[in-house]
Amino acid sequence: MIKAALSVLLVLVAVSSAKYIPKSGKRIPQTLSRGWGDQLIWAQTYEEALYWARLRNKPLMVLFHLEDCPHSLEFKKVFSEDNGIQRTLDEDFIVLNLMYETTDKHLSPDGQYVPRVIFVDPTMTVRADIIGRYSNRMYAYEPADLKLFKSNIEKAKKLLKSEL
């Protein structure tokens, strides 16, 4: 009896810790993911991401980070390990991660810091109203903010459907 219970527990742990795999099957990791989600299809440039967002009528999530920033690394860990985030972004968003600033000043409405997440709708409007919990870094997220981040992802999806 104990062996059976341990076997079931082991299977449940293995299933719950499995990485997200898209419906179309496992993809070859892209170097563009930079560890933020190897199964996601990442745009190469902001211009390309805007093109795909408009063409596919999906919101764009732009993630600014630095490779050696401790705050970026902490957020990357929880971001990349959360299957719900990975699934939602894969199915409902165009995604772009940048380690440099763009020339579009709309993507830094309150300054240039990392990590920073900005949502852009398919009409190419920056969603300045979808913010994190900090008044001095309105688009920053930390690992403890994961619930708010998920809520903002859902908000970006709902705004898309209700406004278009």
Automatic annotation (TrEMBL):
A single Gene Ontology CC term: extracellular region
Entries under InterPro entries matching the protein: AGR/TXD, Thioredoxin-like_sf
Subcellular compartments: Endoplasmic reticulum; Secreted
Stored SUPFAM superfamilies: Thioredoxin-like (SSF52833)
Regions that span the bilayer: none
Major site of localization recorded for this protein: endoplasmic reticulum
Similarity section: Belongs to the AGR family.
Protein name stated in the entry: Anterior gradient protein 2
